[in-house]
Amino acid sequence: MNIAILCDFDETAAQQNVAHIVLNRFGESDWRALQQQFHEGTLPAREYFERPFDGVTASRDEMQRYVREHGRLRDGFVELAHHCRERDIELAIVTHGMDFYVEALLEQARLEWLPTYAVHTTFTDAGIQYDYRYTRPSCVEYGNCKCSIVDGYKSRGHQVFYVGDGVTDLCPARKADLVFARSRLLEECRAEGLPYVELRDFGDVIAELERRNVSVEAAH
After folding, report:
1. Could you say which of 28, 76, 136, 185 is the most buried, measured as most Cβ atoms within 10 Å of its Cβ?
2. Residues with Cβ < 8 Å from 208, sequence gap 6 or more?
């Protein structure tokens, strides 16, 4: 099996929603109102991901330092990364979040070598500029299109295991061969009858790989 494990970041690879950690410290006080509008369906997803950062004036370095101090990767993620590297299994981050805070936690854990599909950010005097490098014309609502990344791996012959927690992970979960799910995504997988394993920590992913006897030889 030529396996690729694609993993959401906020509240999945990371224990917390790291964007919220950043916004609680550096964002405008009313950013939670935008979150409420998104949950009510009155604010488009891409606008919700961008607008809370409009009033942020902190530098990239300042916010990355704060993320390293207050963010945390979920238990077992570092071990999974090394487990996959040793067995030639592709593990990648797939997120609607910003690259600067994803990079901060991965670098702190010395996992900067992991492929990351995130929103590319450039810090300018006029504020943060966003570059959605992983999208397609038919899928613009969320900026980055997670499904297109799953499709890309499958077109290259990979069996895709997807790891996620939220409703925005449902589309790629539907395309995956197996889902590791927690929180809202777990409920959706149960409701739709998708093949899933409940994710408590990343030891669950390692255990499933070992149960399937995925080794270096099997990965090729």
Report:
1. 185
2. 161, 178, 180, 197
